[in-house]
């Protein structure tokens, strides 16, 4: 018996997601100078999603912190860099940096699978963290200032983590990871449903197609189609830079 396009709970899967149910956006790295003289975005980590940068223009770098240390990865057209869950990353502007972002588990990042490297006293207070992380709606000067203030607060915490890690002290970084996990714990049930309807359903659908091919029943090919999309929000303020977003199956753009 072949499988249908439904998840394990019997609910319909989202139709025609991008390959692998990944998320897609385009970023132009911020050119605001931070306290350390570096221009770029807000350092943060993701809890369950791997993120990839495909560089399409300009120059820059991505600075990363992980238990195996600090790295400064150059970015130039054609280069690709990616970071697994728990890796702090900071996009650095070197001149016209433009990146296409591919994000595992489309829908989860938009639902909160990211934590800024705010100082420990902010991370320890969920209400204070939420107030520092949220931006006003829109794309005007007020939003730009709020995004820059958020970036500066994240850089403040990041620089302390990096200094300790470079000196061989991993405990502040590990403490940040634990604090980040505690902040998002209550969101896990919502994330699980998004995962079931998106990435998991896509993998299950592939299994069903393999079963059908093995049984000599390729009737599912009769549902073949083509899809297209254009950006639905331009020049928004993301974590790393100005962000062009797409409303696609599985995403929950906020």
What does this protein look like?
The structure is a single chain. This protein has helices spanning 120-123, 126-133, 141-166, 171-184, 188-214, and strands at residues 23-29, 44-45, 51-66, 69-75, 80-83, 88-103, 115-116, 233-237, 241-245. It has 254 residues and is an alpha+beta fold. The strands form two sheets. Strands 1, 3, 4, 5, 6, 8 and 9 form a seven-stranded antiparallel sheet that branches. It is globular, with a radius of gyration of 20 Å. Mean pLDDT is 89; it is low at 1-13.
Strands, helices and their partners?
Layout (H helix, E strand, L loop, with lengths): L22 E7 L14 E2 L5 E16 L2 E7 L4 E4 L4 E16 L11 E2 L3 H4 L2 H8 L7 H26 L4 H14 L3 H27 L18 E5 L3 E5 L9
Antiparallel strand pairs: 1-6, 1-9, 2-7, 3-4, 3-5, 3-6, 8-9
